[in-house]
C-alpha cells in the first residue's frame, strides 16, 4: 500500500513539474496570456496582419488590441512579429508582418466585435488582413504537456534516452527549393532581435488524401518525440472555423520552438531533412513569429 502511495506521489510530482515548466515557457518566454481554465464556449481567432507602408507595426497592433478588448469580452492572448511565410495555395499571395491570437467569450462576441466601427478602423490601419477562427477543447489543450511527458516516459522505457544531435545536412547547391529554404531561414533569423529563445509557429492546415495523411503521421511522430524530450511543442490546438472568405482549413496548430536560432539549426539538420519528405498536407499556411505582446 505504501509503495502504491509513493508511486502516485512521484507521478504527481512529475506532472506538476511538467505543468510548471510549460507554463513558465508560455508566460515568460512567449508572453502568452492564454488562461489555463476557460469555458468550452470560448472562441479563438487568429488574425494575420500586413502593416501599411511607413506605419509603426507595434502601434498598429496595440490599437487593434485595444479595439478587440474594449468590450470586456475578449483578450489578446498572443501577439507576434512574423518571419517567413509558407503561402497557402488557396489564400494566394501572403506577406504578413504580425499575427495575433484573441480569445472571445463566444463566436457571437467575436462577430459583435468584428462588426464594431472601432475594430474595423483598427484593421483598416493594415494593408491586408486575414482572420481564421478556432474552437479549442479546453481539457485537451490543458493536457498537452502531460501527453508529452507520457510520450517522453515511454521513449525512456524503450531505451531512447538521448536526443538526436542536429548534425548539419549537406544540401545541393543551385536547387530552387534550397534557395527558398535559405531565404526563409534568413527571414526567420531576423527575429532574433525580438526574441532568440522562443518562437511560436502558426499553422492553418487542411489534410490531404489517405496516403498523404499516413505520410504526414510519420513526420509528426518523429517531431513530437523530439519536442517531448526538449520541452517544447504544441501550445494551442483547435478545429479551424472559417470566419472570413470560404477557405475551409481543418486544423489550427500553434507550436512553440526554443528560438529562431534553434529552428534554423533544426531545418538544416540531417534529422529534419531525413523526415520532411514524409510531410504532406492538402494545403497549409505557416507563419513563425517572435513574441511582442509584452511590448504593446
Write structural notes for this entry.
The protein has helices spanning 2-29, 57-69, 107-114, 117-124, 138-142, 144-157, 176-189, 210-230, 260-267, 270-275; strands spanning 43-51, 74-82, 98-104, 126-135, 199-206, 233-241, 251-257, 283-291. Helix content is 42%, strand content 23%. It has one domain. The mean pLDDT is 91. Strands 1-3-2-8-5-7-6-4 form an 8-stranded antiparallel barrel, surrounded by 6 helices. The chain is α+β, with helices and mostly antiparallel strands. The relative contact order is 0.20. α2 (57-69) runs antiparallel to α4 and α6 crosses α8 (210-230). It has 10 helices and 8 strands.
Condensed summary:
By secondary structure, this protein is of the alpha+beta class. The chain has one domain (1-296). The protein contains ten helices and eight strands.
Amino acid at each position: 500500500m505504501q509503495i502504491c502511495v509513493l508511486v502516485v506521489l512521484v507521478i504527481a510530482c512529475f506532472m506538476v513539474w511538467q505543468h510548471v515548466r510549460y507554463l513558465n515557457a508560455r508566460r515568460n518566454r512567449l508572453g502568452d496570456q492564454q488562461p489555463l481554465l476557460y469555458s468550452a464556449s470560448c472562441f479563438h481567432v487568429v488574425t494575420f496582419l500586413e502593416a501599411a507602408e511607413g506605419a509603426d507595426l507595434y502601434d498598429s497592433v496595440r490599437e487593434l488590441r485595444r479595439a478587440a478588448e474594449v468590450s470586456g469580452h475578449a483578450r489578446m492572448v498572443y501577439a507576434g512579429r512574423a518571419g517567413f511565410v509558407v503561402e497557402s495555395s488557396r489564400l494566394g499571395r501572403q506577406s504578413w508582418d504580425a499575427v495575433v491570437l484573441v480569445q472571445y467569450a463566444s463566436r457571437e462576441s467575436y462577430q459583435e466585435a468584428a462588426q464594431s466601427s472601432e475594430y474595423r478602423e483598427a484593421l483598416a490601419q493594415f494593408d491586408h488582413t486575414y482572420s481564421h477562427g478556432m474552437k479549442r477543447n479546453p481539457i485537451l489543450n490543458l493536457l498537452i504537456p502531460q501527453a508529452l511527458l507520457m510520450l517522453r516516459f515511454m521513449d525512456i522505457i524503450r531505451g531512447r534516452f538521448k536526443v538526436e544531435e542536429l548534425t548539419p545536412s549537406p544540401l545541393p547547391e543551385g536547387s530552387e527549393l534550397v534557395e527558398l529554404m535559405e531565404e526563409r531561414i534568413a527571414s526567420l533569423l531576423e527575429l532574433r532581435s525580438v526574441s532568440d529563445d522562443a518562437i511560436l509557429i502558426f499553422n492553418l492546415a487542411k489534410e490531404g488524401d489517405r496516403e498523404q495523411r499516413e505520410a504526414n503521421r510519420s513526420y509528426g511522430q518523429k517531431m513530437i518525440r523530439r519536442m517531448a524530450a526538449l520541452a517544447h511543442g504544441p501550445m494551442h490546438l483547435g478545429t479551424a472555423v472559417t470566419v472570413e472568405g470560404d477557405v475551409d482549413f481543418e486544423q489550427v496548430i500553434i507550436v512553440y520552438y526554443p528560438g529562431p536560432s534553434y529552428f534554423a539549426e533544426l531545418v538544416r539538420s540531417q534529422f529534419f531533412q531525413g523526415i520532411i519528405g514524409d510531410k504532406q498536407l492538402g494545403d497549409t499556411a505557416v507563419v513563425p513569429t517572435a513574441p511582442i505582446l509584452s511590448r504593446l
